[in-house]
Each structure stands twice: as C-alpha cells, then as structure tokens.
Design a protein that fits this description.
By secondary structure, this protein is α+β, with helices and mostly antiparallel strands. It has six helices and 17 strands. The chain is about 20% helix and about 40% strand. It starts with a strand and ends in a 7-residue tail after the last helix.
Length: about 280
C-alpha cells in the first residue's frame, strides 16, 4: 500500500479540495498522512517531527509558504514533492487545482520525473558551539531590527575576506529563492538548474555593493560588527533567531536537495512570464 503525504494550507478553499483529494486517494487504497498548516507554523518546526521515511510522495495544497513548510517537514529524506496552487500563480507550485486528479493519477502510477532543487544549510556558532542549524530552500536573511541603524555585515568566502556590507541587511539565497525577497531587493532571477549561491545586499550604503553569485561549492561566513545591534537571522521567511555580536553564521550547500515532481511540457519560463507579467508587446 502506497503512503502519500498531504500538507494543506489553513484556507477554506485548500482544505475543501484536500478533503476531496484525501477521499479520492483512500478509495484507491492509499494511506494518507495529512498535515494542516495554521498561521502558527513555527510550532510545526519546534517539535522537530519530520515526514515518515516511507512516504511515496508529498502533495502540497497552498501557496509558496506552505510549500516551504512541507520542504522542511521532508528534511533530508528523498521524498518527491509537488505543489498545487489556488488562484494566484506561485513559483513553487507545479499544478493548478483543476489538474490535480489527472496529474495525481500519473504520479500514483509512477509516471513522472523529478528535478532536484538545491538547499542551503545555515549554522549559527555561539561560543564555539552550534547554537542553531536549519535547512533552507529559498533564502537566509540577516537584517537589522526596525529601530536599528545600518548593519555592518562582515563577509568571508572560503575564509577569504570579501567585504563588509553596510546595509539594511544581506540575503543569501538559492537559485530557487532568487525569485523571492532577493528579487524585490534588486537581485537577478537565476534558473533553478544553475549551480550557484546568490548574495544580495538590502539597501546598501555603498552603491557599488551589488548582488553577487558565487559557486555552490563555497562556504560563506558572516560576522556582524560590534557596533551592530538588534540583528535577526530569518529562514525562508518563517523562522527567526536573534544574532549576538560574537556569533558566526556559516552557510553552505546542503547535500540533500528537494526533489520536485515536474509536469511534462510545463516550462519554468512560463511561470516567470505569468508571475512577473512579462510580455513581448508594448505596454
């Protein structure tokens, strides 16, 4: 008997479709493990309860935020995942709700392929010990609090001193995350199959501090200046940790990608054009 995971946004439309989909799966003798995600998603992480290792795949009904939550639920396991969007186009969802059942039929019959999406691992080292560690699909953001002045963010690449960003913050993202906060901060769009890590300063004081793409084989070390205060580190926009002045932040490629189920003939460029409203005609 196959076992399938359902991760569902706490939204009436998504939950109604999930109820219908769960009933459909059960009629096909499939065991369903369902997680409904409320607005209090942090409690989902703090319990450190991860997806069963014998899941055949995971369907995510909701937006990109729900997908990021599901990716962390999978953790380092090789479980394929697919997102189902409702209304507004998301960058992480492959399916529309109208195509859910036909696509699910193919997936159950193992007629699908997957695309690996790189993840990062971020560690906070405090007093020479690991204080915090998490996997990241989209981005890591180091930024100042609402009342703090510019942050001084000292940045090293493989122990080579790169620069000290004087800025509102710094975004370190995967190619998948290049269309999230980094894009709003002026960073480039990177195709998910490109191997690299993107570093985008947020409102830098020095205008020559521009977004930088480095190889995904490097180790990035970040330290904050003793003059900096009220600094936060945020993971995928969902979980945050306060950074002390003596902390060291280490960011590397995680060896466990997320394996996203892809739909034939659905190009990443189509998602970009729809989400970013690109057009070949005059405005």
């Amino acid at each position: 008997m196959k076992k399938i995971g359902l991760v569902v946004k706490s939204d009436n439309r998504a939950m109604e479709k999930a109820d219908e989909f769960e009933e459909w799966l059960i009629k096909k003798d499939i065991n369903v493990i369902r997680k409904d995600i409320t607005s209090h998603a942090n409690s989902f992480f703090k319990k450190k309860l991860f997806a069963p290792s014998d899941l055949f795949c995971v369907f995510v009904l909701g937006g990109d935020g729900t997908f990021l939550t599901a990716a962390r639920w999978i953790s380092n396991q090789n479980i394929p995942i697919i997102g189902v969007k409702f209304g507004e186009v998301g960058f992480l969802a492959e399916l529309s709700e109208n195509n859910l059942f036909s696509a699910a039929e193919n997936i159950i019959n193992e007629n699908f392929i997957t695309q690996p999406r790189m993840r990062l691992r971020v560690q906070v080292i405090r007093n020479y010990l690991e204080y915090f560690s998490e996997a990241v699909l989209n981005d890591i953001v180091i930024n100042k609090g609402a009342l703090a002045r510019l942050a001084d963010i000292k940045t090293y690449i493989d122990d080579y001193y790169l620069t000290t960003y004087r800025a509102d913050g710094l975004i370190v993202s995967t190619p998948t995350g290049s269309t999230a906060y980094s894009l709003a901060a002026g960073g480039p769009v990177i195709h998910p199959s490109v191997s690299g890590i993107l570093m985008t300063p947020i409102c830098p004081f020095t205008l020559t501090n521009r977004p930088l793409i480095v190889p995904d084989s490097v180790s990035i070390r970040i330290e904050t200046s003793k003059k900096s205060s009220d600094i936060m580190l945020t993971i995928d926009g969902q979980e945050g940790v306060e950074i002390d002045r003596e902390d060291k932040i280490i960011i590397k490629k995680w060896p466990y990608p997320i394996n996203m189920i892809t739909i034939p003939n659905q190009l990443y460029y189509n998602v970009l054009k729809a989400k970013l409203r690109w057009s070949g005609s005059r405005v």
